[in-house]
Prior knowledge:
The complex is a heterotrimer of chains A (about 290), B (about 280) and C (about 325). Chain A is mostly helical and about 290 residues long. In chain A, about 75% of the residues lie in helices and about 0% in strands. In chain A, helix 8 (about 160-175) packs antiparallel against helix 10 (about 190-220). The longest helix of chain A is centred in the N-terminal third of the chain and has 34 residues, at about 60-95. With about 280 residues, chain B is mainly α. Chain B has helices at about 15-45, 45-55, 55-90, 95-100, 105-110, 110-120, 125-135, 145-170, 170-180, 185-215, 220, 230-240, 245-275. The longest helix of chain B is centred in the N-terminal third of the chain and has 34 residues, at about 55-90. Chain B starts with 15 loop residues before the first helix and ends with a helix. With about 325 residues, chain C is an alpha/beta fold. Chain C has a 5-stranded mixed β-sheet. Chain C has a 4-stranded mixed β-sheet with strand order 2-1-3-11. A two-stranded antiparallel ribbon of chain C has the order 4-12. Chains in contact: A-B, A-C, B-C.
Amino acid sequence: MSDISHPTRFRRASDDSPVARLILIGIALGGLGLLVAMPLLVVLSQALAEGWGAALTSLASHDARSAIRLTLLITAIAVPLNAVFGIAAAWFITKFDFRGKAFLITLIDLPFSISPVVAGLCIVLLFGANSTLGGLLVAGGYPVVFAVPGIILATVFVTFPFVARELIPVMVEQGRAEEEAALTLGASGWRVFTTVTLPNIRWALLYGTLLCTARAMGEFGAVAVVSGKIRGQTATMPITIEMLYNEYLSVAAFSMAGLLTCLALITLTLKTGLELRHADALAATRRH
Amino acid sequence: MVSRSTWIARSPMPGRGVAAGITLSMLSAVVLLPIGALIWQGVQFGPLGIWDVINRDRVWAALWLSFRLAFLAAGFNLVFGTLLAWVLVRYRFAGRRLVDAAIDLPFALPTAVAGIALTTLYAPNGFLGGLASQIGWKIAYTQWGIFLALVFVGLPFVTRTVQPVVEEIDTEVEEASATLGASRLYTMRHVILPMLTPAALTGFALSMARAVGEYGSVIFIAGNIPLKTEIAPLLIVIQLEEYNYNAAGAIGLAMLGISFVMLLAINLVQIWSRRKIGHV
Amino acid sequence: MTIRPVFLTLALFAIAPQAHAQDLLNVSYDPTREFYRDINQAFAKTWQDQGHDAPKIETSHGGSGAQARSVIEGLGAQVVTLALASDIDKIAQAGKLPTDWQTRLPHNSSPYTSTIVFLVREGNPKGITDWGDLVKDGVEIITPNPKTSGGARWNYLAAWAWAQENGRDPKEFVHDLFTHVPVLDTGARGATTTFAQRGIGDVLLAWENEAWLAQQELGEDQFDIVAPSISILAEPPVAKVDANIKNDAQGELADAYLDYLYTPEAQAMAFAHYYRAWDDSQADPQDVARFPKMNLVSIDDLGGWAKLQPEHFGDGGIFDQIYAGP
């Protein structure tokens, strides 16, 4: 990505042949079209099957609004928790040498490979009214399962590795030299983190956080197990979508699905926009 | 580096206590404690009981199906995702930013919605399923449908792990390789791909891990016929419907065990390949 | 991070247990959504007319078994209205209500009944008129999985009852029947969607009310309903969950809600929602007349849930043997 322009008839050694480019771009766009764009079109066309008015009316209903509020609340709690965890875990793993590092990373990844259904089952086994802990909590008036805390727990569980997973590779690439230099110059630990490390990892952090947000809003399997599916109380947006779909209210169901997708798209566009604006800074931090 | 007496090697880096404390306590509270409850359930049930539940044709068939298709889907994503990362970083074309954002959609779309949308498209009376059925290719309600759903949910992982690494590659390396007489293909194979391998493997592992446990989107498109298109997570749900926590836990533990061994193996391969090519 | 305390405070508000006496949670199964939406409105009005405060009635829908499990695990339902008596039996076994709950209300605690019918494509191209036609070559059947769907257990038992009456080996017949099933959905609604919207299969085995509803919602000119010579009398029961009643006022509300289901007004609504209810005195005659006369076998004729459930649908039961593998 050098600034020097070349006459077009010469191809740089790091460029692929035009034919290869066309083929690769074709495969990429074709594959994404079949896998992502078409299903998205299905969602949007179903949502707007009866026009914008019907779609917006369905979203303004009391139950829809409370589902949107609940989903936003859960996201607002789960994402900061996971961001703090992700930073701590990435720091611990990349700045220190210790035995069992691969094992620890595997444990952090574990929520990925656990079926959301099993994740929900685990939480029910631990906090359900039939367990010791759950029984105490229910008796104290703080039910976890079939209430909001259970949904938050399930959401934190399934999105647990997102931030850490984004940060670790970047911090590995960056190495420790810059931090060590700053320490030698007498900077405090916190100062090193905020002035040296954080600027280096902010894009990865932002990206992980946004992914975590998107996934937290859309989680269905685990939440379905621990939510009582009560309208206005424990029905999140994905749960409401399923309920509406089962009631043959496909416009309402897909409108909410469309809204959820739009929320995700907004977060992702935000990321892209920030990248564009700060492209130079970004390139600078990525060069060694 | 690591001495016998200290678990964590001495390091001048600050914040060891805080970082380790937050990491380990949150890991315990959010992940280990609930999984511990599952394992405790299994311990009470006993290894023989667990083996009795798992050692049936139908359970083996479901486990084999889940892990085989997850592996194949992750394999597809390994190739396609690496290609996507390359195209997105190296080429400039109209709508590139849009494509870049679209890759994350499978994360954001609720799995049930994804399942419904994919089934609508790929069912025999759907747009793409109709085209496929004209050449006698059934997608929805066969293993192809499951494969498709698993590719969908695992799509972003490889691209997102490989992309930053492609950005890091210094084009001078490729130029040097070309100067030394290597063909573009040779440079790709022997210079570029090895650099991408550790990240791609991470993406592969994540993609596969996600696919193995996927439930929401698959049940809509799978057909769910025992021994043919029944996935392991569905068996867990079936056991739960029968109030059979022991059996549900047993199948859950089997999946957990296999996944854990797999993830551990891939993490080890990754550490090994990083060392081999000189990173870290 | 300064905004975090705000979130935590919000969370506490959301977590704080609701303390209204006048609320009621009805945990129900899938195909009753439309019915209970109407019932809740009508009952709330009646209850207010009797001089009470407006009640806050919530319903939750899902697979019957999963819903029962939620209640056992602590979902605070005061009223359950499920697909199978055996599911409420499970809740009773967990100590949430007396085991003789089914004698507390009329008609085995089933205010409405239904049966299993066939939904076929317009004009009935495969000529399906009875259970025997289902296992003909080339017929594809859509039914949900009896292991995950209460409705599908009725499908299965209706087929069993027909085979018994017609001198066929019932075990062999249901085995044959399930080899004709290309897609086994987890719930009744999923199966209806697969059949009606994805165009899979030649015949859908469905709740009678579900079949009518599908016809109404998804196109009357696309499907025909076929009533087989024998079917099963499906009695979805209702019960008060005594352990979840917080105070006398709430107990009164729960009892009134369940009693209301037996009033001529509610029974008329059940007819309107395609259920075979008991009291047609206030029902629209058209709603009553559209049900064909059918020979309905009751669950007790087959031996009762206590025997049938483990024998057929338990782990390793007759249904599992169909798919036991080579």
